[in-house]
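At this stage, I put together a protein sequence along with its fold in token form, as given directly below:
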Amino acid sequence: MSESTQKCPSCSETVPLEYSVCPFCGFGLLEYELRKFSFRPSLKEVFIRLYNFFRHPFKTSEEIAVATEKKGANIILLLFSLFLSLRFFVVLMKFGITFQTEIRIPASPEPDQWSMVIPINLLVFLVTFLLMPLIIWVMLKIFIFITTWFMAKFAAMLGSDATTKQFRSIIGYSLGAITVGEFLGILFMLFLPNLHAGTFYSYSEFANQMESVSNGAAMWIYRVIMLVLWVAFIVYSAIALRTIGKMAWVNAFVAITVPIALFVYFFYFAGLITTG
């Protein structure tokens, strides 16, 4: 394909660049380009597309191929970061980390001097609700920006026609399954019993308590649910890649599964981070 030709997104035939309609299948090339570069979904449209992606993955993937955007992936990633941060806050709350400590502003021992008392748990909540999600979101965006570039190149070696931007949109919407898992993690942590509430103890004691909770029945159920959601993430990503990239089923699953399997192994089984 030269600089004066283009590939039809529908039938993959080579068409002269000035054609607005594919002569082989009748696909609207000009309309495709206009939609591709002008689509700016609203917040409501993002959640509608997310819902449709898991309900009608083939049709929605075709829409993503034509109207590729990054807003949906950014919103889903932000929700993931928020739920992850709130789950961390619930862990601190359940373990009573400095739960009764207060800060006086300005700090003064005089009882008659005006001061504002702020509980530490309120500060922790504000940090985990506002600052921490933003930090995690930025870190994950950088991580996904790099990894999806490599994943897109790996998929291209296996015959994918999907662009890197389309690939990032695929991964972003597929992360909706894992985001649901993080929200469920908050609920699971809420149902755990309080441990050492209102007391102080050493880090080793905290680590031992955390390990005992992580090995409990509730957390094992949560791990199984997360495993199912990771499988769903891979399946829907592969469906979208196969539809958008116009590649064989086996190649689509290999292009998605191999990088994700490496990620899950190193971050969940090699001890780099824990799932509790």
Remarks:
- The longest helix spans residues 120-157.
- The chain is about 65% helix and 5% strand.
- The CA atoms of residues 96 and 197 lie 4 Å apart.
- The chain has a mean pLDDT of 78.
